[in-house]
Amino acid sequence: MELFFVAVTTLASSLPITCLFPFLYFMVRDLQVAQTEEDIGNYAGFLGASYMVGRSFAAIFWGVVADRIGRKPVIMFSILSVVIFNTLFGLSTKYWMALTTRFVLGALNGLLAPIKAYSIEVCQTEHQALGLSIVNTAWGLGLVVGPALGGYLAQPVEKYPHIFSKESVFGRFPYLLPCLGVSLFAAIVLISCIWLPETIHKHKSPEKDIKRIKELSLQQAYWDSPRKKSLLQNWPWMSTMISYCFFGLHDTAYSEILSLWAVSDRKYGGLSFSSEDIGQVLAAAGASLLAYQLIFYHWVHKFLGPIISLRIASALSILILSTYPFMTYLSGTGLSFALYSAAMMKSALAVSIFKVLP
């Protein structure tokens, strides 16, 4: 039951991020903040980044709060912020409103670190890898569901005129429906979190570790105690964090740039895709990530090992990314095959990278 809560809360946290990509370009265009069509990408980049900027400022704070008062309050507050501010984002009529609500949503959504800690604490030591895999699997599911929601539900009056009229609330706010769908799911998850058990009491050093430290000499215990060491002097940890930052930057930039590039007009080097088209591409990429993680990654990890698989995945990612500019010369079935294949392989390779890093 605890792992089920981990899955649904992680999914509720991932959907506000992933559902935005298919309609981000069109939303900025309709907000009429860009002076020219070429400037839409700049404003869309700032809007897409505002969520992560807010998260980067507050992530450590929420981790400390979760250690002080418990995981459950932070998790519930984060889900509540999704319900409120994701809905407000769909109601934005000005660019500054959209930018502000995304920034505040990122700053108040401190779910990622506490939910990983929670997934470990509800499992015994031999099953902690399973707990973390639930988080990754739910995030992968969000990469499928989120873009599909954003692609199919954005601008419903244009796509489904027989269901939604221009005089309705969805005619005035064409991007409210996907945001509202995510917020409703988050509200259901928030209600279910009432039965979420707290695990902060489990976040303590095992008695056998305390006994072992006491048996050491005073000088040795001083140097071995983790509280006496600086993380900046932990070179394996530092190298892992630096790699994680670079790959995280790469993966986030790829997701946003792919969407903006695909929906841009062909005269500007894009593909002239609709929000529905790019939503399908991102959903297929998320599905391939999920399938690779559940079926194939175990065998790759077994035969190649984590470090070698990470290096191979990094090198192959460079080759795949280099093919995207040439896709503008394709059309029809050839374009669909090339784009879907590249996006699916890129998502699968990301599993081999982020499974090794924390």
UniProtKB/TrEMBL annotation:
Q: Name one GO molecular function term.
A: transmembrane transporter activity
PROSITE patterns referenced in this protein's UniProt entry, alphabetically: MFS (PS50850)
Location of the Major facilitator superfamily (MFS) profile domain: 2-358
Where is it located? Membrane
Q: Which InterPro entries match?
A: MFS, MFS_dom, MFS_trans_sf, Tet-R_TetA/multi-R_MdtG-like
Q: Which GO terms describe its cellular component?
A: membrane
Q: Does the keyword Transcription regulation apply?
A: no
Domain of life the protein comes from: Eukaryota
TM ranges: 40-62, 74-93, 99-118, 130-153, 173-196, 237-261, 281-300, 312-331
SUPFAM superfamilies for this protein: MFS general substrate transporter
Q: How does it sit in the membrane?
A: Multi-pass membrane protein
Q: Which UniProt keywords apply?
A: Membrane, Transmembrane, Transmembrane helix, Transport
Q: List, alphabetically, the Pfam families matched.
A: MFS_1
Q: What is this protein called?
A: Major facilitator superfamily (MFS) profile domain-containing protein
Q: Species name for this entry? A: Oryza glaberrima (African rice)
